[in-house]
Amino acid sequence: MINTVAPAFLIPVLFSIFCIFIGIFTARKDDPASGVTGLTLESFKDNWSSDYQNTNNAGIPDAEGDVHWNFHALVGLFFPAVTGIMAGSNRSASLKDTQRSIPIGTLAATLATTGLYLVSVLLFGAVATRDKLLTDRLLTATVAWPFPAIIHIGIILSTLGAALQSLTGAPRLLAAISNDDILPVLNYFKVGDGSEPYLATLFTAFICMGCVIIGNLDLITPTVTMFFLLCYSGVNLSCFLLDLLDAPSWRPRWKFHHWSFSLLGASLCIVIMFLISWSFTVVSLALASLIYYYVSIKGKAGDWGDGFKSAYFQLALRSLRSLGANQVHPKNWYPIPLVFCRPWGMLPENVPCHPKLADFANCMKKKGRGMSIFINILDGDYHDRAEDAKAACKQLDTYINYKNCEGVAEIVVAPNMTEGFRGIVQTMGLGNLKPNIVVMRYPEIWRRENLQEIPSIFVGIINDCIVANKAVVIVKGLDEWPNEYQRQYGTIDLYWIVRDGGLMLLLSQLLLTKESFESCKIQVFCIAEEDTDAECLKADVKKFLYDLRMQAEVIVITIKSWDVQLEGGSQPDESMEALTAAQQRVSDYLAEIKATAKKEGTPLMADGKPVIVNEQQVEKFLYTTLKLNSTILKYSRMAAVVLVSLPPPPISHPAYCYMEYMDLLVDNVPRLLMVRGYRRDVVTLFT
């Protein structure tokens, strides 16, 4: 209806303008007492220079008035007169051909109104005295031909036409923002397709009436000007970024365009804002920033490919290239965990990841900053399970966002878990943004659930990480891992057995940055042979930690040779029972594979691979892990968390035997991290 009656408002307005110009050219020159001089060069010269006045709140010149005007203030007052140039864009849904109509209509409106305003300023400056220009609020009606009432009618119709256009355009814009879920607080204004936004129209009308009731448009126009300038600067900035960054999708139909024009336009908008009122500008920018922050936190809007996203993409590419493929210096090293979400498959199908894995991944990053990659492997054929993988990826991504973890979700379909992980560890990541630490939970369930395939998968993953030069962190007791609100007390104990590039030390320091562990202290236990100079070793380690700028208490534990016969009597009864049970299980397993090999006439095989079993060496490994476990229980039973070096799987040993070693190592330790570094330093050493 408004579009239909628009000509009824436009024609009288154009006729009024025509009458004004006729009146200017026919103004009488024989009545200077009225202030209307007709078109004279003298009036033009007298009015050419500026003479800013003080006015009262009604805008009438008053030497004692509270309002002082200058050029910048008048720009803010006048600017709303030129803000109709985006009316076509705001109502683009009503246009038949937006790509053709918006550029032509916008430019034509800009040129026509600019020419009309400039000519009007020059003609009025030549047709009346300065005092008449300042005091006659309806000079257009005074000079109009044939009588002032025509101008009064034109002003009323112009106001009604503009107001009705705004009262139909603004509510639709508000409803569109609401439908896109950009601002959740505006959800009340949502409407269906083709429906009228009644609630948004009432809200818009309420705002308009509130502004009218103020009774002085001079107080409102600077505020309106600020928001229009912000809008225009945003549009210009988006065009500038898209053109400068050469986005493939940026193909404007209007060919006479260059990024420098957009940058100039955005800069002019900001400059004009500060010239009009720096205080209004600061408030407007702060309000816009708060809205942007609110949208980024609460909004659920889709991605429309804005200019900033294109800038982020180009910046990421440039940063990735600048990182290169060379090793990162220890000062710039960041942990990038590859979190194995469901390696042992004992979670409900609708749970994409262990609930505590994201908490632990955050503990490996300083202040939660950094990237984690959460992966799952689906067994099967890719063609058959592609849709399942997409659904699982979406579910895992939702979990990551829910846990407020900076990370990405990846789902891989592979014939089996071993092949899937081997592909992931070789290809995941780009350049120096490849994951450098593999994180997974310890398979505590394997014997309880009689999952005989787990040992070979577990050992295979560790060996793949060693070959791919990835660090490994295995978490035992993940169910008891504290969240950010569960404060821990006591110590973080490190059992430093082999050189790992400082990864274990770095992890302990990262744990201290979390609220849950900030009250803990670090203890470093060094395991040494009996004939080692303990005091010298302690001094060396203390000096090393000092050079690393790390605070920790150093404790050297001297242990006799790993000989079960020499120390068997010194072990607690429960430890010896665990050792005896492990020896019996290993013995039964070895007897089984030997019987199979003898029956089939093949070399000794385990998990489809030839193995070499030295029973004396197996016995030594069992006792070594038992001794280390007893030491941990003796010194660290009350520790908040224990970190210990992860022993590599012995070459040619059956995976089953390695799992027995690990079970002895972690037995009765409630919260344990087994850490294996890789062939490089991750901490800086300044001496």
TrEMBL record:
Ranges for domain SLC12A transporter C-terminal: 355-476, 487-686
GO cellular component: membrane
A single GO molecular function term of this UniProt record: chloride:monoatomic cation symporter activity
Domain Amino acid permease/ SLC12A: 9-313
Source species, domain of life: Eukaryota
Membrane association type: Multi-pass membrane protein
Transmembrane intervals: 7-27, 69-89, 101-124, 144-164, 198-217, 223-242, 263-295
Keywords of this entry: Membrane, Transmembrane, Transmembrane helix, Transport
Subcellular location: Membrane
Main location per the UniProt record: membrane
PANTHER family for this protein: CATION-CHLORIDE COTRANSPORTER 1 (PTHR11827:SF100), SOLUTE CARRIER FAMILY 12, CATION COTRANSPORTERS (PTHR11827)
Family assignment from sequence similarity: Belongs to the SLC12A transporter family.
Name of the molecule in the record: Cation-chloride cotransporter 1
